[in-house]
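sanity check this record:

:::
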Amino acid sequence: MTQPTPIRRVSGHLRTAVDLAARGVPVLPLSKGKVPFANCPACLYTSCGGRPNMKTPGPCTCPRPCHAWAAATTDPDTLTGPTWARAWKQAAAVAYHPGGIGLTVVDLDHADAVTWARRTLPVTRTVVTTRGEHWIYRGAMPSANGVRDGVDIKSLMSYARWLDTGTGTLAPLPEAVRALIVKRSPSVRPVIAPVPAGGGECPHRTPAYLERGIAMAEQRITAATSAVHATVYCTFLAVLSTHGRCGCLTDTHMGRLFAAAQTKGESPRHCTDAWSNALTALGM
């Protein structure tokens, strides 16, 4: 059996990662901005069959730390090996895969979200964050962003920043948390991020105005040669800010935008998150 790498060989964030891995917690390094290190060139977009957030997610055979949550590991040789060395030298934080150890993190991003949780959810282990709190429950479930204002669910196929062990006793995952996630349809339409129902003044003098806007948005996405994630989000934001409040957008329009994004390698999950985040940013 391979012996764990001696702790004396590591320090800082890597020391934390090795300690957590020894306790069975799958971990990975985070770069500045609390984001995973970029995928290696061999695994960008759909070139790797194990790309997460597809129908059959999972780690690939790439030796470098990529794929966000799917890169999380408990193997000390992987954590301290030469292929991860540069990432740990540049790491700004340590993250872990909650779903990988049967946990769900309710990420409360501001004081109002914390107040809501204290009124609504069962008491459980709590970790104080820079802007709010993480409420951790025993049990895994699908992950989703923006289930409420300032509330994200981090469990399966997701990662959470490791801060400390927290205080309190782990409570079982309650139905109140599971109910925050509406099961997504297998079609392109994401149920948790619906087309706005309207209520604002309609600026569209002719149907051609909306059609031209959707066509331009499709073209902007398909023409992207880099920063695809950012381009998709900014395009969704622009469409919703112009057409989202009057109720003229339909499922067909949203489906066209999602389809354009998926031709650039975005997964349905990424599309859903970008759409949901744009709705949240616009207060819809």
User: Anything to note?
Assistant: Confidence is low (pLDDT under 50) at residues 1-10, 49-58, 183-195. DSSP finds nine helices and ten strands in the chain. The CA atoms of residues 81 and 127 lie 30 Å apart. The radius of gyration is 20 Å.
